[in-house]
Amino acid sequence: KTNDMKTINIPKIIPTGNIDSIFENLPSHAIDCCNWRAEFPYTPNAAFKLFHDGKNLYIKFLVTENDIQAVVAEDQGRTWTDPCVEFFVSPEGNLDYYNFECTCTGKLLLAWHPDNAPKESADKEIIDSVKRIPSLGTEPFTLRRGEHSWSVIEVIPVTALFRSGVDSFDGKEMTANFYKCGDELPTPHFLSWNAIEWPSPSFHRPEQFGKLVFLDKK
User: Fold this and answer.
1) For residues 57 and 169, what is the distance between their CA atoms, to the nearest angstrom?
2) pTM > 0.90
3) Which residues does residue 109 pair with via DSSP β-bridges, in sequence order?
4) CB contact set of 8 (below 8 Å; sequence gap of 6+)
5) N or C terminus of the chain: which is more exposed, having fewer CB within 10 Å?
6) Mapping DSSP to helix (H, G, I), strand (E, B) and coil, where does residue 171 land?
7) What pLDDT, on a 0 to 100 scale, did the predictor assign at position 128?
8) Going by DSSP bridges, is the β-strand pair 108-113/97-103 parallel, antiparallel, or unpaired?
9) Within the chain, which residues score under 70 in pLDDT?
């Protein structure tokens, strides 16, 4: 069965100056569905905030969790093994989707996943077009025990949806999900914004995405 679909209306804001001050006044959306609690009960505190300016989507992820590391040193690496926040989006609301997976030091994995065809990884130019601002900086580090809070801002141009043909976010409706994971941390975890019904951890479930409505009035 399909789960209840959450919906977010994303405000249109043209940033002038500091985008952090814009995020301060926006609602926070929790990534708190612990879909595989029996095996992976740990639920770090994770949330995100959103706005767009027509040509770019601005996402700020906010995380508080135990025992972090930043081993992944390059884009298009094994991002999900570090503390990782993820945004999967289907511009057409079908089974074709993109996965944006970002580590706590801003390393990004991006690919297009067409339904019934092999995925296509983004090239360097597209990866570089996604701006990332991680609060922990961009250098790798070894395991840090105890509780840590961190954030990362991603500025995703509409052109990063490189096979969609979408030229503006204005007025669009898309389906999406947001995730927090860390497969190779001391306490692995797999959280989602919209609930997932599947026997084992799997984020690649576009049929269980929630809905994003991009408002087109400033």
Assistant:
1) 8
2) yes
3) 101
4) 29, 50, 210, 211, 212, 213
5) N
6) coil
7) 98
8) antiparallel
9) 1-3, 218
Q: In sequence order, which ranges of the chain are alpha helices (DSSP H)?
A: 19-24, 124-129
Neighbours of 171 (CB within 10 A): 12
Q: Whole-angstrom Cα distance, residue 192 to residue 198?
A: 12
Q: In the chain, where do the E strands start and end?
A: 7-10, 29-30, 33-34, 45-52, 56-70, 84-90, 97-103, 108-113, 120-121, 131-134, 141-157, 173-181, 190-192, 210-214
* pLDDT score for 1: 39
Question: End-to-end alpha-carbon separation of the chain, Å?
Answer: 37
Contact 218, 13 (CB under 8 A): yes
Tell me if residue 125 falls in helix, strand or coil: helix
C-alpha 24/C-alpha 46 separation (Å) is 16
Predicted pLDDT at 106: 98
User: Residue 142 burial by CB count (10 A; 0-12/13-18/19+): exposed, middle or buried?
Assistant: exposed
Give the number of residues written for the chain.
Answer: 218
Write the pLDDT tens digit of every residue in 57-114. 999 999 999 999 999 999 999 999 999 999 999 999 999 999 999 999 999 999 999 9
